[in-house]
Every structure is written in C-alpha cells, then in structure tokens.
Amino acid sequence: MTVKEIKDRISSRLEAAGIEDHIYESWLFLEWKLGISRADYYMDPEAQVDEDRLEDLEKALARRQAREPFAYIMGRSEFMGYSFLTDNRVLIPRQDTECLVELAADRIRTRSDRGAGLRILDLCTGSGCIGICIKKMFPKAEVVLSDHSEGALEVAGENARQLQAEVEILKGDLFDPVSGTFDLILSNPPYIPSEVVDGLMPEVADYEPRTALDGEADGLYYYRKIVAQAPAYLKEEGSLLFEIGHDQGRDLETLLEEAGFTDISIEKDLAGLDRIACGTWRVPRLG
Ligand code: GLN
Q: Which of 145, 201, 236, 285 suits a disulfide with 125, CB 3.0-4.6 Å?
C-alpha cells in the first residue's frame, strides 16, 4: 500500500467514528506508528509500505475508533514541553492547565531566587504535571504533590522519576496527608458539575477517571473545601491558585472573598476565557 492510501484510510476510519480532527490525527498515527512525518509524506506520497508494518497501526486505530483518547493509546502526552506518562488512571494533561503553571512560575520568579526556600503544594496532582513542571523550572523549591488516588500517585511517581524531579508525594483526601505551610498552593481539582460529565464527548466521559472530573452538583464542591482549609496551610502572604471552568470566575471570586482572601484575581487563558482564580492569604489582624 502507498503512504497516501494508508493516510486516507486512517483519516476516513476516524471520520466514520465521529472524530472531528480526523485529518490532524491521521498525521499523528502516521508519524507514531510508521515513523512517517508530514514532510516525509509530501516528499513521496506514493512510497510503498509493507503490509506487515500495519499490524500495530491497526490495533491502535481500533482503540481510537472506540473513542479512546489518543494520549491513552500512545501512553504519553506533552505538557510544558515535557513528555508525561499518561494512562486511564489520570486526567490527560491539558493545554489549559499550562496557564496555571505559567502564572505560578511568574509569581515564584518575583518572590525568590529560583524558588529557593519556597514550599509549593500541588493538590489533586493526578499525573503530577503541574508540580513536576514547577520543580523542573525551580529546582530549589520544595514541591509536594498530593492526591487521594493510589493509581494517580503511581503515575505521578513514575513521571517524577522519568523527568528526574525530586518531589514529595503524599496520599490522602485533600489536605489530610499534608503538613506545614506553603508559599503557593496550586490545584486543578475536579470541577465539572455531575450532570454535565455524562454529556461530555466520549473520550472524556467514557475514558477519563470520573473522580478527576466530577465536582458534584454545581461543580464547586472541591473549591469550597480547599478554600475553607487552605488558610491553615498557607504562609503569611501565601497564594492559592486554581484552574477553573470558563463560567466559574464569579463563583470563585465570591468564595475567595468570603473566606477572607485578598488580591483576588481571575485570569484568562489563550482563548480569552476565565481559567485561573488566585487569592492571597494575609493573617487577619484584630483591631
Ligand atoms: N492536576 C492534574 C492536572 O492538571 C489532575 C487534575 C484532576 O485530576 N482534576 O492534569
């Protein structure tokens, strides 16, 4: 078969499975399974490929046709330029979340020399993508990852090992396993309202861990709990940074305000949508 025939076949099979980006994804499969880049393709679309090289591609394609996310099939995803091990025990690291890391990095840089002396907590760490990137950027900072899911922590631990990030990993519900105070608490907790989760695209609803997505009735369950408990774990002038859903800015502003946080701000992502909520903790003074 020619490369062009293979590419067209991948693309039409993905399209038949209802995958919108079928053309883009056909390039991904071609590159990943046959080592043929776009440039290779255009140099010689009529190049012949041996049939026996297609077996692996077939298997991966069948999984994708069942709407399993590409990142789980490949077992990796890219985040902030690092390659993270990714399987169905964790939420797939998303570009949206890179905004949280960038904002945190800006704050860390202005606060200290390469993070020296800072303690940073990544709560609900999942794959570990947030905390591990921070540790890579600021090796002098002390970074703690925590999650309630054993499976997620196995993935986070493996990612930390592969990326050579020396982080501390704790297992437990939110702050339960955490001790001491932090300069920065970062979190991308589950924030999708329960009844919305089932209606999401099959890649998300059928494959990603529900516990990483479902923020209960109004989606704000974990924000409420974290906002209430965070002051006990923040240093004076420590900050809490959340990833949020595009329509949750107002709610988060209110939650942070009512809990006594200051310097509250809602920041936008590259698409111009509300994506991050920040608040700073100053110990309230009496009188
Ligand atoms: N912190 C992880 C991420 O951003 C996992 C988030 C989650 O499980 N809700 O990808």
A: 145
- 12 and 121 assigned to the same domain: no
Examine the domain organization and report whether 98 and 37 are in the same domain. Answer: no
State which of 41, 66, 91 marks the end of a domain.
Answer: 66
Instruction: Determine the Cα–Cα distance for residues 74 and 85; give it in Å rounded to an integer.
Output: 9
The domain that contains 153 carries what CATH number?
A: 3.40.50.150
How many domains in the chain?
2
Q: Is the pLDDT of residue 287 over 70?
A: no
Using a 10 angstrom Cβ sphere, with 0-12 exposed, 13-18 middle and 19 or more buried, the burial of residue 261 is buried
Q: How far is the CA of 151 from the centre of ligand 1 (A)?
A: 13
Per-residue pLDDT tens over the stretch 90-134 = 999 999 999 999 999 999 998 877 889 999 999 999 999 999 999
Tell me the CA–centroid distance for residue 189 and ligand 1, in Å.
Answer: 6
What number does the ligand 1 atom closest to the CA of 190 have? Answer: 9
Q: According to the model, what pLDDT value does residue 231 have? A: 97
Q: Which residues line ligand 1 (CB under 6 A)?
A: 91, 93, 97, 124-127, 129-130, 188-190, 212
Enter the tokens of residue 239.
Answer: 């900050």
Q: Which domain holds residue 230?
A: 76-281
Residues 136 and 200 in one domain: yes
Look at strands 182-187 and 274-281 and give their pairing: unpaired
Task: Output the CA 91–ligand 1 centroid distance in Å.
Answer: 6
Domain identity same for 62 and 80: no
* Cα–Cα distances in angstroms (integers) from residue 52 to residues 35, 49, 57, 58, 147, in the given order: 15, 9, 10, 11, 43
One domain for residues 133 and 167: yes
